[in-house]
């Protein structure tokens, strides 16, 4: 990614969104970071991380972070956000990252479809899928007008991923992949690339809290879940997006579903600790009962 590019990371309060925003900042971009939690008010997620903190991290990394409180289900807020970007950046938007999620409190893992709350399940689709559509609808005209740009739909799993274990979560994550594919079809004539991107086992702030560890002590969580040995920091998926944004031939990925570990091999970047965790290869081997030492997959 070259200095001076403009990015919007929708859903950048924490986790992968924050990691992507910071790595785009490290590449010299101006990054608009959105979310619902600010220093003054928390979203229903009730997490302490704020969009202001993310913006500060973007600036500290070398870019320019701009925090804007937006609920991406509210069309007028998204419209105003995009109008602001257009006015402040002379109509320029180079990278759109649709990372809005907020579905953790709505996801049920131990019940079939008919035993889950229908209203919660439909809310999950609104929260995790409709937000992406609303944001793209408003933002894509900026890219189309300039004849270029990159749209990244952040999801969980690749296009050929099997059932994710619970109906509404699976529908949301596979739906986002299809959103990327459909956008790719519409955008191809205009020189804009759209793709889906998945991290591996993401070591987000919430996941660290779940395991009762910090980033410095994260390996203590392996005792609770052996798969945690293959977890990756948000910087890993962030570097994947930065590498895509810097690729002059990024259109070769149009319509594809990609993974952080695949792009690490393609572009040569590493995670924050210098390792290159290959979640896909490890998980496939583990499912066959053939996984070796996790360090051999990093």
UniProtKB/TrEMBL annotation:
Highest taxon listed in the record's lineage: Bacteria
Record Gene3D superfamilies: NAD(P)-binding Rossmann-like Domain
Coiled-coil regions listed in the entry: none
Pfam families per the UniProt record, alphabetical: adh_short
Entries under InterPro entries matching the protein: NAD(P)-bd_dom_sf, SDR_fam
UniProt xrefs under NCBIfam families: PRK08303.1 (NF006159)
Protein name as annotated: Short chain dehydrogenase
Organism placement in taxonomy: Bacteria, Bacillati, Actinomycetota, Actinomycetes, Streptosporangiales
């Amino acid at each position: 990614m070259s200095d001076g590019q403009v990015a919007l990371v929708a859903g950048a309060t924490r986790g992968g969104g924050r990691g992507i925003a910071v790595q785009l900042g490290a590449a010299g971009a101006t990054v608009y970071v959105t979310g619902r939690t600010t220093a003054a008010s928390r979203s229903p997620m009730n997490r302490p991380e704020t969009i202001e903190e993310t913006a500060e991290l973007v600036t500290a990394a070398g870019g320019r972070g701009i925090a804007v409180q937006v609920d991406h289900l509210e069309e007028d807020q998204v419209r105003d956000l995009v109008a602001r970007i257009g006015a402040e950046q002379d109509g320029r938007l180079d990278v759109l990252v649709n990372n809005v999620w907020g579905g953790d409190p709505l996801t049920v893992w131990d019940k079939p479809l008919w035993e889950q709350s229908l209203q919660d399940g439909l809310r999950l689709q609104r929260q995790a899928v409709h937000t992406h559509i609303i944001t793209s609808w408003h933002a894509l005209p900026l890219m189309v007008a300039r004849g270029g740009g990159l749209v990244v739909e952040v999801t969980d799993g690749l296009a050929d991923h099997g059932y994710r274990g619970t109906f509404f979560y699976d529908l949301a994550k596979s739906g986002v992949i299809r959103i990327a594919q459909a956008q790719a079809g519409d955008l191809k004539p205009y020189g804009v690339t759209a793709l889906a991107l998945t991290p591996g086992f993401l070591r987000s702030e919430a996941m660290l809290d779940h395991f009762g560890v910090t980033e410095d002590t994260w390996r203590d969580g392996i005792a609770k879940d052996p798969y945690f040995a293959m977890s990756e920091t948000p910087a890993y998926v962030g570097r994947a997006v930065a590498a895509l944004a810097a690729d002059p031939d990024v259109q070769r990925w149009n319509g594809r579903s990609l993974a952080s570990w695949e792009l690490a091999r393609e572009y040569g970047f590493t995670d924050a600790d210098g390792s290159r965790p290959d979640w896909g290869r490890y998980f496939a081997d583990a499912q066959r009962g053939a996984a070796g030492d996790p360090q051999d997959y990093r």
